[in-house]
Amino acid sequence: MNFWSTLSTGVSAFTATNLDDMVILMLIFSQVGSLLQRRQIVSGQYLGFALLVLASLPGFFGSLLVPRPWIGLLGLVPIILGLNRLLEQPAEDEAEPTVEPSQSAWASFLSPQTYGIAALTVANGSDNVGIYVPLFAHCTGETLVLMLLIFFALVGVWCYAAYQLTRLPTIAETLTRYGNQFVPYVLIGLGAMILWDSQTLADRGLILIALLIGIGYLIGVGRMLPSQQE
């Protein structure tokens, strides 16, 4: 592939596999506050996308590293995040807003929020691997480097566009009014869709792993609720 065909292919592949990410990013940016910063969202998005690229790179070398059903297990991440948001909503509504000191760029990158966004990006991008593997398999070394540069540049464009969209009056008002109530259900639905589309639930072994994770989560929540009520 020459420069222009690589450019058009890269832009088309990224757009086709990340259109749904735009909606998720808008919802996440609408939650920016004392507990979630813009830099954490951007860092998490880049980290998650880098992991997707790493999982797809074996296609360039002729083999697949991570089977798609195993990647689909990450669908549990948005489900757990959504359940956490539902459980935390009453406390958030009653609590008064607090202002926390800003973190350094490095501390922000290492924060749990960043890793949470990264995990959500990987979970939502499990279908990306299926497209990127054959795409990378047809690349030479030079075109692969160019393709990756295009992809990572577009991650920044996606984050900027999503953030700017949340600042439009109509969208901002809607997200501010309904975002906190809407986001948990979007996350849970997204996780369920990922588990289904990745055929994770077709494997009995993976079903058992998912059940064990779910049981562990419920046990953890059960232990936390009494302490919160006190």
TrEMBL record:
**InterPro entries hit by this protein:** Cd-R_transporter
What are the UniProt keywords, alphabetically? Membrane, Transmembrane, Transmembrane helix
Q: Name one Pfam family in it.
A: Cad
Q: Does the keyword Transmembrane apply?
A: yes
Give the residue spans that cross the bilayer: 12-34, 46-64, 144-163, 178-196, 205-225
Protein name, please? Transporter
